[in-house]
Write a structure and sequence with these properties.
single chain; 140 residues; six-stranded mixed beta sheet; 1 helix
């Protein structure tokens, strides 16, 4: 009789644990699904693409490979919160790097990036169809 009670308790405990784990997993999945489905905030104002412009200044004209570099500038005609990306020229093609930032209050931005490809790098900042002038940085 004692053995049956012990087995029964173990079975109930195991079932309760499995049910709890299933509920927690389903709840977490629902939370992630809700977060993924939630709309992202839109930039605060609409901008005329033809009047948009970006300036850029590199913190240095040369840097060691892998060291951090900062690009700063101002934007004109772009909403606060607009995403800016850093691009570099490879051959005749512009490629987006894994460095980005957003336009801050006052229409300014600051972007940190690590440059790894040695040699002269032609870089620019891009938003939508608007690009900054090119800056050249030597990576040693």
């Amino acid at each position: 009789m004692l053995r049956a009670t012990l087995r029964s308790r173990c079975a109930r405990t195991f079932a309760a644990g499995a049910l709890s784990a299933a509920l927690l997993t389903a709840g977490a999945a629902g939370t992630f699904a809700h977060a993924a489905a939630a709309p992202k905030p839109k930039p605060s104002a609409s901008a005329s693409k033809s009047a948009a412009s970006i300036t850029v200044k590199a913190s240095s004209t040369s840097v060691k490979a892998g060291d951090k570099m900062t690009f700063t500038g101002r934007t004109k005609g772009m909403p606060i919160g607009s995403k800016l990306v850093l691009q570099h020229k490879k051959g005749n093609k512009w490629t987006t790097l894994q460095a980005s930032t957003t336009v801050k209050k006052g229409s300014s931005y600051s972007l940190d990036a690590k440059l790894n490809d040695k040699g002269k790098q032609e870089l620019r900042i891009k938003y939508d169809e608007t690009t900054s002038p090119t800056v050249t940085v030597t990576v040693k």
